[in-house]
């Protein structure tokens, strides 16, 4: 197909620019409006991130429907003692939040306190002694001293959706009522956890997005030496950031701590594509000082469009592979980010050619004016070429030192990768909310107060399920629940045990036939069957749709990063199950609550992370094989792309640093980004090889051409997100540092390892085969 004339090509680029400008005008208001709307839906509930069809999630949902107490806020202060008036006053201060108003439903379903439960248990019909009551409530509602207690507020669905506001109101109401400063009122529980994560996640975007964009723009201007080209890249990147958040809103998903890293990621990927395209244009401009800007633009698009689309495809595959992760926010993150990469690349391809033309004309005018003023030859190199030439030669000289000993360099990188890979089996994940905050944060301080003054805070549940035809006598059922309760109370690292056992006296032995035993049994039976009894009102016995009676036993573990909650929970399971199996009659336990939901989320996260990475690796490797037309070559080319991920993640395993929700997505993302540089490098390398250059010479020439684009994209894409590292919110901070480390390692892999591979014996698998010469015949 014949090339268009330069005039026709210029017209085409102008038309595309106008189309792109129209798209910007349409998308910019949508991005601004709907990104703000998306952020207003911020709601973090890690327990609900698991798919609804998973057994552990289904058990948790069923449990939440049948029992109260999953969204309970614990409120405490140093003067909250059994018998102190301030405890009842604080509970009364919260009662207005239990009432609906003209503009909102009730925020709280109920308010209670350790004092109220204490009063119930020391009054008829139970009439426990104060000493016995303190012992029953110790670790759950009363501290080890038997005096310290807390206030409880159960959130309604509306209250949970507005938990930041409700938490602030609750603290203020209690503070005003009892005269204790708000900073000395401590809170814990799911509402506090969610409210603080929501606030920090929102704050990370509000505080660091604009500074990150400014840093990226300044670095981009320095690298490209063009305000026009930088402006196009930054505008598209910012619109991409906004639209990625808007897509969260359109998908019907609530914003959360995982999705907040979408904006910096989209910015990074957009800037990377734009810088590579601009460097192809710079190459064309530098190849001939008198080249027409339209011709330079056409040359740049012809050379750059294929590798840019290939690089974008590998990135989209890396992001799309996160769709295999069963945690809903992570899979949504992958699909939305992949769509954003595709959309921003289309916008860049529409806008950049027109901007390149405009920039080229202005640059030529300035250049000729400068030459005329200095009486220099018109064929002198452009100023930008001098600068790029120095950088290119620096890259060549640096890499050439390593290419002198390619086998040693490849062996060294192989050893480093192998040592790091030994840490991958030790890699762990964490979705523990307090760990998302620094040691001196409010949530850590509050949890430490409750651990010291009340008891353990990490919740778990055992639900004993009695089929309709098993143990028809409720007293027998209570005896079995009492046995489980007593066993849990004597188990190491378990505290805060609370069940029907806390409300009722211990039943007499079955063999006892005394009048006292008969009266005691009758009293217990009445409370078990009376729907208005304190036990029934507390919601520790329920019935499911199948008619099974469910008895709830709550317990807690201490908050301690040294504790392996999975192991401890499995130990509890191993001790409880035999007690129920011995009872027989189809009686079975269900284990749920915060601990199993957290451990299951961590297991799913790690398993699916591995699966998604393998899927991305497999697909990207196939693309590399097709690009190189060599099975072995495709595998060899993947080594520099595996180096960053294996090295950083393996090192985290060796250092026993867990992956959190901010860093877990970076493995597949890093693979996609690392392949970008490899594709651009190999494209140039193969082009030089087809011109007859030897592998080492072709590799140095490719580095001369691609080196500036590689370090420029690394500078913009690694340093601009590093601004988020200033956040106190650990997932955001970890994401920034992980992206910086992965991109830096990817640069090292592409600049040092890849040229060494090409110069080594393995390089022959990456070198295009010379076309076969047709044999000439003479007659």
Oligomer: single chain
How many individual β-strands?
Answer: 9
CATH class of the largest domain: Mainly Alpha
Number of domains: 3
Rg measurement, Å: 33 Å
Rounded average pLDDT: 86
* Overall CATH architecture of the largest domain: Up-down Bundle
Fraction in helix: 55-70%
Number of DSSP helical runs: 24
**Biggest β-sheet, characterized?**
5 strands, antiparallel
The H-level CATH homologous superfamily of the largest domain, spelled out, is Multidrug efflux transporter AcrB transmembrane domain
What is the CATH topology assignment of the largest domain?
Multidrug efflux transporter AcrB transmembrane fold
Instruction: Sum up the overall morphology in one term.
Output: elongated
Span of the ends, CA to CA: 37 Å
Low-pLDDT segments: 378-382, 774-779
Q: Strand portion, in percent? A: 5-15%
Structure classification = alpha+beta
Q: Would you give an account of this structure?
A:
The chain has three domains: 6-42 and 225-432 and 599-765, Multidrug efflux transporter AcrB transmembrane domain (Multidrug efflux transporter AcrB transmembrane fold); 71-195, Alpha-Beta Plaits (2-Layer Sandwich); 468-586, no CATH class. The protein contains 24 helices and nine strands. The protein has helices at 6-39, 55-66, 85-93, 114-121, 130-137, 157-161, 163-178, 190-224, 227-250, 262-287, 293-320, 328-374, 383-403, 406-421, 442-453, 474-489, 515-529, 534-538, 565-583, 594-628, 631-654, 666-690, 695-719, 730-759; strands at 72-76, 108-113, 151-155, 186-188, 458-466, 495-498, 541-543, 549-557, 588-592. Strands 5, 6, 7, 8 and 9 form a five-stranded antiparallel β-sheet that branches. β7 (541-543) and β8 (549-557) form a beta hairpin. α8 packs parallel to α10 (262-287). Mean pLDDT is 86; it is low at 378-382 and 774-779. Keywords: Cell membrane, Membrane, Transmembrane, Transmembrane helix. Residues 119-372, 578-776 form the Membrane transport protein MMPL domain.
